[in-house]
Predict the structure.
Amino acid sequence: MRRAAFNAHPFHRPIIRCRPDIVFQALIDDYMLVSSYAYRRYETRYGGAMQLQETERIEFKRSVNERICKTIIAFANGTGGEIYVGIDDFGNVLDLEDIDGDMLKISNYVHDLICPELLQFVHIEPIELEGKRIIAVNVESGDEKPYYLANKGLIPAGVFTRLGPATVPMSRRDIRRMIRETDSDFFDSHHAQVQDLTFTFAETFFKLKGVDFSRERFKALGLYADDGYFSNLALLISDQNPYNLKCAVFNDDACTEFLNSLDCDGSILKQFNDAFSFLQSASNLRSYFPSHTRVDVRDYPLYAVREGLLNSIIHRDYDESLYTPTLIKMSRTALSFTSYGDLYHVREKEIFSNVSSARNPRLLALFHRFNEVEAYGSGLPRIQELYEYEKLKATVEVGNFFTLRLPNINTTHNPYLSRTRNDGPGLRGGHEAFDKLNAMGALPTDVKAEYDRECERRAEALRFQRIREAGEARGMSARDAFQHALAAIGMPTMDETEDDAQWADMMGPGAPELKEKGGRWIPQTIVDDTAIADEAPGTKRNVRETPVHNTTEDTGRSAIEHLLITFASDKKGFSREEAQEALGAGRDTTLKVINGLVKEGKLEKVGRARATRYRVVG
């Protein structure tokens, strides 16, 4: 990044010209936003050297040449900017030898090489920086966009815009759009190519909303173009509207498993009505009983659904998107609205502020007549406010398409609602979340039963861990303590001849020497776990001699495999993390055991990546 250090903070007059001779006392926070061009200058709290960083509205030039015209055009086609001539690519300030001649060159370039006339929007002045003289060129946003190189014309090679700190050619689509915007030439006011239109649904909708739809009102409603023929707004609300909208509900987050779908066509009013009804029915209403009063919570606030749908319809770029339908997708965890067209006269950081700029003003005015929109840019901020109340956040993605994504309130707050499957309660998420929901009485009956079984498994795992740790505290070797804990909870002990490597991997560095005794290893003594858990240090422990017998069922199967099969037998599926927690083993050991059981056909692998789960076969 190119930078230059300023020893004084330049003061900006209303015309945005730098005055380095006046020092603004910097007694504010560690950084501040200076001038309408929004570039950052960083300084210490009480003074010191500040840095000027090249940004979307700041450009450095080593010397004056014709290439400066591209940057001037880019600033004029955007929101303006400043060019500092006399600073090289490394941020070094140079001393211009013929500053008057360079200023004259810039003025001549602007006059001779750029169309339309731009001189009144360009201000050129010399300034002093680090004791050296450079030139500041201030370019304001023009009012006859697009500006272009006179010898190239209105093609990408002649029209430029800013992309971050770079000057880039403008696409043909953006050039056409800029021409329309400058001429206030909006799609919904154009002469419609199809004039044989009917308004069957529109008449019903207008009547329902209490708005007069007589022919005498067509012009006031914007349904006629300037030439007296039907406008594109009339085409949009007609039964012959060629633009469509698609809705779909999916059973997974990857949006590959359809549950339901709806193709909306015909009048844009009918599409709005049908799509909203579809989404309203697909947004589940879930009831909780945190106290004696029932609380009903929808997956998505209906206001947010309506605003998202209206935004995708009203602000879509219809001029070039005939074969690109608006897509609305509802997955297990989110609802997204995707429509063609990038931001229109609004910056990305202003999306959730009360800033409004209509790409289709007649269409917006029509929905305003229906009392469906406020036309004050309050829709998206209101959505964000609703989700902030739920401690969630709506997000947007911008580019050639605009996507608004709303999180599912219920599946986000309640981990028992599976994010990947829909075939049962399948407890997922941290135990703390379920404990909290259980205390609130918010677990459904089937989930409560699964939760109780999980609590029993957790208690057994905790008992196993406690017995093992108590045995080690009493001087038992790590292996003896592990074997003792297995026997205490009714599990078969470790088969030494088959599982030495697996045992050493599970126990980690410092694993004790394994004793060869032939057949299955049997601990010498088993300590009464109740006495171990309850007795105080120094007291005599109760010891009972208990042999551990082999069974035909367990022959050839390691204890850890048996433990995993038992853990999985009453679950519809489990993850590697859940198995690792239940076994008290390391990640590699758990994966070895799971993969071995999958290979033997005893476990089945479902899903992939983070959604991978395993279940017992048969």
Remarks:
- DSSP finds 19 helices and 26 strands in the chain.
